[in-house]
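Question:
Now give any protein.
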Amino acid sequence: MPVKQGFFDAFGLTECLANGSLESSNCLFRLGSTYMDQTLKQLGELLLGAIPTVVFLILLYFFYRILVHKPLSQVLAKRHELTDGAIQRAKADIAAAEAKTAEYEHRLREARLTMFKALEDHRQVVVNAREAALADTQAKAQQQVAAARVALEQDKAAAQAQLRTEAERLASDVMRTVLRPMSFGPSSQPSAGGGR
């Protein structure tokens, strides 16, 4: 059993193998202690070999923090600030634009109301002027009608007076003619022109 022999030789347990008492506490303690010593020795060598790696990793970490992480964090913070700042400015611009739009709509509404009021006032002035002109024209027309009626009444009265005078004159002419003595002589014959 060369494998067992080599194993026991490696851990210094050949004496326990020669005695045939591998299960004794002394052999097991020696076996455990040998394993522990060997493990600790290997662990010490491993840690000793890892020191440059740990130092290198620590240096790498500090260089990373100084050369990469800090500037990268600053750039990302600045970019985030610029992005958030741009978003905030955009929101502020949108709010300002909405406020200006509301103000513009309010002014437009006021301008329309002012325009409509001015148009209504102008229309009212035109209507009032038209009514005044119509009333003035009606008053003048009524005055002209009244003057024409007065003139007609005067003309009528004058015509009636003239007709009365003419009728009286004709009546007196007719009566004279009718009542005149009739004579049959040449000198007494009425003239062919109607006897006037």
About this structure: The radius of gyration is 73 Å. Confidence is low (pLDDT under 50) at residues 192-196. The chain has one domain: 2-177.
